Amino acid sequence: MHAGIPEHGRVPLYFAVRSRLLDLIQTLGEGSALPSERDLADLFDVSRLAVRQAVGELVLEGRLTRRQGVGTFVAPPKLVRRMALSNLGFEPTRALVTLEHLPAANPLAAELGVRVGAMIVHLERVVSAHGDRIGLESTYLAAERFPGLADRFDPTGSLHDHLREVFDVTVADAEERVETILATPREAQLIGVSQALPMLLLNRLTRDADGRPIDRARSLFRGDRFSIIATLRE
């Protein structure tokens, strides 16, 4: 298969419709409403089923976005996260969902370097960009290392900035693992997406200059609004 075209050279009808839709999207521009399925079928001289399949694929890819009861629109470009410390590639805003103390169980206790049963701070926040909810972050820290964090931290701000300014703790390195999953019903509701939407899951452990764990984070981002760039060097 070359560029999505089978070796036998016969292009699936929906793929041809998809290609024409991409040209139309460029012409319409970000935020523009897409014509109805009926109008597109007439425009391309194809069945509504072929149009529906092509539009559905472009919605999953994040090129189009559906608004319930309103219509389908040209989506803005995807947000980019570069695989670098303290660099999301955009200016996020955060809204608090949960801020609590919990007893640490394994393997979280081992990752944070505390005994099983020691108290940890759990911080859960919805992440937004350009006014749209794009993800959900859950962060875990040792309560003993950061006393009073739950009372003093502004959850709308940067956690790592707060740790540096108040506790003189600075992130030196991190390990981050990325995979694709589907959100749970609760996660999908908090982010405001369908459970069928693929999500990017980032699991990260940060450390200070002495190699001591700072926090363990689980970040869930919308697959249709997010891409990741990693720079590799030898």
From TrEMBL:
Coiled coil: none annotated. SMART domains: HTH_GNTR (SM00345), UTRA (SM00866). Gene3D superfamilies: Chorismate lyase-like, Winged helix-like DNA-binding domain superfamily/Winged helix DNA-binding domain. GO terms for biological process: negative regulation of DNA-templated transcription. Keywords: DNA-binding, Transcription, Transcription regulation. Residues 11-77 form the HTH gntR-type domain. This is Transcriptional regulator, GntR family. It comes from Actinokineospora alba. The lineage of its organism: Bacteria, Bacillati, Actinomycetota, Actinomycetes, Pseudonocardiales.
